[in-house]
Here is the input.
Amino acid sequence: MENTIFREAFGNSPKLRILETLIIGRELDWSLTDIAEQSNVGWSTLHRIFDSMIKSEIIKFNRTIGKAKLYRINQNNKIAKELIRIFDLLIKEETEMAVKNIELTA
Here is the structure.
């Protein structure tokens, strides 16, 4: 799994990889299986830390389809809002640096 500027800044823990996945796909609903696969976090690790993320209201249950419970980042939570803001700033900065590098080599 490729390291991102977000994980370079804050670490590459399973919790951070889960948050990054949900921030990137913030408008989507995610099953636990999808979260585990996309964040490259093992099933037992996901189950060990997921409840605390739900209790802190950073992640929220959104709906059920069939037997699958679907979750998303809680964009109304102050901590989640701040993480999203920081993520977006880091991505913007990374993009701007890439554009400058292209301009310098052109």
